[in-house]
Amino acid sequence: MRADNHKFLKEFTEVLTTNNGKSSVYLTQKRLKPSLDLEESSQDQYPILIRVTMNGKDKKDTKKDKLKLSTVVDTGDLDQFWQEYIQIIKNGFVGLKKKEKKKSKKGKVSK
Question: Is domain 5-35+44-92 in CATH 3.30.720.10, yes or no?
């Protein structure tokens, strides 16, 4: 089911707050290609399809409580959508941590 952009962002926020880092959330973003009939007319800009999926809590029955959200963002609305989308991701992904850097060995001398 494809929702409009505002409804998608609202539901995505609710999903991340209720999930609270317990289950994996998968994000997919790709260019939405036109149908084969319209391929002859060249376009410079294409809308973007954004999907959010999350498996259910019971791993044996993957269809149980499986979540699928998607929306199509037109190129004119893209800047505003990205700003709101990124804020939701930053606030909602609590389980992420920064990559640890390796400590350099000071005792070695390179040739």
Answer: yes
